[in-house]
Amino acid sequence: MTEVSVREAREQISRLLERVQSGEEVLILRRGKPAARLVGPAPGHVVFRSRASLRDELPAMQESASVAVRSLRDAERY
Questions:
Q1: Domain tally for the chain?
Q2: Which of 15, 29, 40, 78 is the most buried (most CB within 10 A)?
């Protein structure tokens, strides 16, 4: 892992990005302490399930939303 100061990183960002693309990690130091780490992107991408498939797994509603809200609201009053 390469360590560079913030000033060096600012001056050499293109070169640092090339090193990161080749698989190297770069640690950016501010006053000698780690401030940031440059790494390549994570491999692949996250695939989310469709909303339709999630919706199909939900149980059917037993009562309408207005009835449920009304009963909850009335229970809070007394």
A1: 1
A2: 29
Cβ distance 2 to 26 under 8 Å?
yes
Q: How far is CA 63 from CA 26, 54, 55, 73, 75, in A?
A: 57, 20, 17, 15, 16
Assess if residue 49 is contained within a domain: no
- Where residue 18 sits, what CATH number does that domain have? 3.40.1620
Sign of the Cα pseudo-torsion (50, 52, 56, 60, in order): positive
Regarding pTM above 0.90, the answer is no
* 3-state class (DSSP) for residue 47: coil
Are the CB atoms for 4 and 29 separated by under 8 Å? Answer: yes
Q: How far apart are CA 50 and CA 38, in angstroms?
A: 33
